[in-house]
Amino acid sequence: MTLKTLAARCLGLLAVVLLMAVSAPQLSAQQINPTQSSVQEQQLLEALQGGQNLSGRVTIPDQRAADLIKPGNPGWANLHGGTITTLFVVSVVGVLAALLLFYLIRGRIRVDSGLSGRMIPRFGGLERFAHWMLAASFIILALTGLNLVIGRAVIRPIIGEGAFGTMTAWGKLAHNYLAWPFMIALAIVFLVWVVHNIPNKVDLEWIKQGGGILKKGVHPPAKKFNFGQKMIFWAVVIGGAALSFTGVMLLFPHLAGTPADWQLYQVIHGVVAAILSAIIIAHIYIGSVGMEGAFDAMGKGEVDLNWAKEHHSLWVDEMMAKDTKPQTRAGTVGTPAE
Length: 338
Ligand code: HEM
Description:
about 350 residues; mainly alpha; Fumarate Reductase Cytochrome B subunit; three-stranded antiparallel beta sheet; 12 helices; 3 strands; binds protoporphyrin IX containing FE; iron; electron transport; transport; formate dehydrogenase (NAD+) activity
């Protein structure tokens, strides 16, 4: 090595040492703040196992984004994946079994006096529009919701992972968007029917006679809606409102408050959905195959006069007093019920 080369190397080394001396304190000051507290690994582990909530730091405006997401919260996970699934299965299978038993014992509820062929208007256009909008949206919401609860265990093994993934993705979209027509229909149904659903003393007689559905030839008096229907109405209104509120909280988690509040809304959503689905299965049975002449009320908007006299005698009296003349099947429909 020549003297010239040695001198050049020494100068280079000196330059590097000088550069490090100048820049090192700045780098360490930027990266490490010895007075700042930091989360220990043990704290993270405890939080992830269901312990205290932890928050870090974020630079975006929503400070809740700094909260540690705890996927394994055991209490909520057990409720969500276990208790609610069981409740869904038990209530849906239970009501189907009860209806089958009822059908085997009682058979189809017939019009005891036979169909008269004379029709009386029962529901107007707005009532039927709101009912069917509510019914269609609820049924799809219930099926797509049920898929989220039991689909992975029940449907995926049958149709395969790919088809199940596609179906569930579309189902989730349908669930999110159909919530809105459901809420609109619920509000209309509430407004048009609430006056007919206030319990009164006529209902006591209906309860005393078991609604007349257990025995042939028993027909307790009722106005536009009997006590059983009033119970369905209030279950739909209160249950539907609870589903709507909790559903909006689930869709927009930032409105829900803390993560614990969001989890509570999810549990309420699941429990109410399971109970209301079971009630609605019974309603669909009675409104279609379970009772002769009932479907016409929502299908055509008019019912056979003998059906009306047997199930809603006081309402028929009111209609007659209002001079709403029953029509023959061939004739035009008279003044709407309301
Ligand atoms: C295919 C399904 C459905 C059928 C065949 C059906 C049938 C009927 C019928 C025939 C009535 C009138 C009964 C009468 O004249 O007294 C009625 C009323 C009613 N429906 Fe439905 N319905 C269905 C689905 C739904 C759903 C999904 C809901 C709510 C989520 C619902 C809520 C109501 C309510 C609140 C009433 C008034 C109270 C009552 O009659 O119980 N329906 N339905």
